[in-house]
């Protein structure tokens, strides 16, 4: 099936995998990877520039291997948002939450990894690249989790990691903390970690699963600064968990994985976290506006607690509509779900461009 040359001593289980590949196209309105459409606030850029000379002067030295200041700042941010009482021993940081996920699967994925699809496509890919077995759990047709089925599957499969994404990507819907609690209980009974990917938590009104960590030592919450924090280019992700999970991450991480500049930039962004709230509020109100405009056009939209919308009911196939929007210089995402497309919430102006282009495909 695959066309790798015979001389390449490739691991057999990698030969059929394809790279993660959201298109990166310039000179278009980019609504395909759920980035924050706003640039970093000026005050943050200026604070970074002030700090940069001393960071550059010490580039001959390795960075803080354990990212102590960054983890302290992350715990302050999480505690402030959730009324929790974590410290750096509960937090681990890496180059994006994808590296966080890999660190966890390397350490604990050996009995298989279960996730409920359609969900984040990197969960199965990271699992397979780590050489572990991926098991597909299903969602209902409306993309919600069938709790009873999910719990049944956890106890049948007995994986060592269960993934849940909330708000879910690509559908946008969130699950409540009561349901997460039941999934954590079920994972605990088979000796599995429940890894809750909360990449879009800042856009959601649901309580964060960090509130359950004290009760469930097997619960790990994964976060990123790529979305709400407008910091996708810096590559910073982290998890919050029982300190034992952090200790295991120290074994599977690469030493000095997080560069000095990355750590400095993230710390400064976290110190200015309140500047982001106005942008997040605007994106949430834009999400509601775009959703109701799509409905007015006769389409159907999945309820979203994130910064994107999954919709259906347009005329034509997802491929055709995606290409036609690209001809109008609007890049959205065909996530491979039949009859559906996903659009990221951009600036009001970008959203208007999207709405004008998609109106051509009303049913
Ligand atoms: C975007 C996204 C991430 C973020 O990945 P980073 O490596 O932190 O940029 C993680 N999980 C989900 C579900 C996402 O949608």
If you had to describe this structure to a student in words, what would you say it looks like?
With 363 residues, the chain is of the alpha/beta class. The protein has 11 helices and 12 strands. The strands form 3 sheets. Strands 2-8-7-6-5-3-4 form a 7-stranded mixed sheet, with helices on both faces. Strands 9-10-12 form a 3-stranded antiparallel sheet, covered by helices on one side. Helix 3 crosses helix 4 and helix 3 crosses helix 7. The two termini are 39 Å apart. The structure holds pyridoxal-5'-phosphate. Pyridoxal-5'-phosphate binds next to helix 3. The site of pyridoxal-5'-phosphate (PLP) has 14 residues, from helix 3.
Task: Lay out the secondary structure.
Layout lengths: L28 E2 L11 H16 L10 H15 L8 E4 L1 H13 L4 E5 L4 H8 L4 E5 L8 H11 L3 E5 L11 H13 L3 E5 L21 E6 L12 E4 L2 H10 L7 H12 L5 H20 L3 E2 L6 E5 L5 H10 L2 E2 L8 E5 L3 H12 L4
Parallel strand pairs: 1-11, 3-4, 3-5, 5-6, 6-7
Antiparallel strand pairs: 2-8, 7-8, 9-10, 10-12
Q: Which ligands accompany this protein?
A: pyridoxal-5'-phosphate
Largest sheet: 7 strands, mixed
What is the straight-line distance between the termini? Answer: 39 Å
Task: Supply the helix-strand structural class.
Answer: alpha/beta
Helix content: 25-40%
> Got a strand count?
12
What is the strand content?
5-15%
Strands of the biggest beta sheet: in what spatial order? Answer: 2-8-7-6-5-3-4
């Amino acid at each position: 099936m695959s066309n790798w040359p015979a001389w390449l001593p490739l691991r057999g289980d990698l030969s059929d995998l394809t790279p993660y590949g959201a298109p990166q196209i310039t000179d278009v309105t980019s609504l395909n990877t759920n980035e924050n459409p706003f640039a970093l606030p000026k005050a943050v850029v200026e604070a970074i520039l002030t700090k940069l000379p001393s960071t550059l002067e010490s580039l001959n030295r390795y960075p803080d291997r354990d990212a102590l200041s960054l983890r302290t700042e992350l715990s302050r941010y999480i505690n402030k948002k959730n009324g929790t009482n974590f410290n750096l021993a509960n937090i681990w940081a890496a180059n994006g939450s994808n590296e966080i996920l890999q660190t966890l699967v390397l350490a604990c994925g050996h009995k298989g990894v279960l996730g409920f699809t359609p969900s984040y496509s990197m969960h199965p890919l990271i699992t397979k690249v780590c050489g572990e077995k991926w098991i597909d759990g299903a969602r209902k047709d409306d993309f919600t989790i069938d709790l009873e089925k999910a719990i049944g599957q956890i106890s049948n499969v007995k994986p060592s990691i269960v993934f849940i994404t909330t708000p879910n990507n690509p559908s946008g819907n969130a699950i409540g903390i009561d349901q997460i609690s039941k999934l954590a209980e079920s994972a605990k009974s088979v000796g599995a970690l429940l890894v809750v990917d909360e990449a879009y938590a800042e856009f959601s009104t649901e309580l964060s699963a960090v509130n359950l960590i004290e009760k469930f030592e097997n619960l790990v919450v994964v976060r990123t600064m790529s979305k709400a924090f407008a910091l996708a280019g810096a590559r910073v992700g982290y998890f919050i968990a029982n300190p034992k999970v952090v200790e295991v991450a120290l074994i599977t991480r690469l030493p000095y994985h997080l560069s000095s500049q990355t750590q400095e930039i993230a710390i400064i962004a976290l110190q200015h976290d309140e500047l982001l709230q106005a942008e997040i509020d605007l994106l949430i109100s834009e999400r509601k506006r775009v959703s109701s405009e799509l409905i007015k056009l006769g389409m159907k939209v999945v309820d979203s607690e994130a910064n994107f919308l999954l919709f259906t009911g347009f005329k034509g196939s997802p491929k055709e509509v995606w290409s036609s929007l690209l001809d109008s210089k609007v890049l959205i995402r065909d996530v491979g779900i039949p009859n559906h497309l996903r659009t990221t919430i951009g600036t009001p102006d970008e959203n208007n461009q999207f709405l004008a282009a998609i109106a051509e495909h009303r049913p």
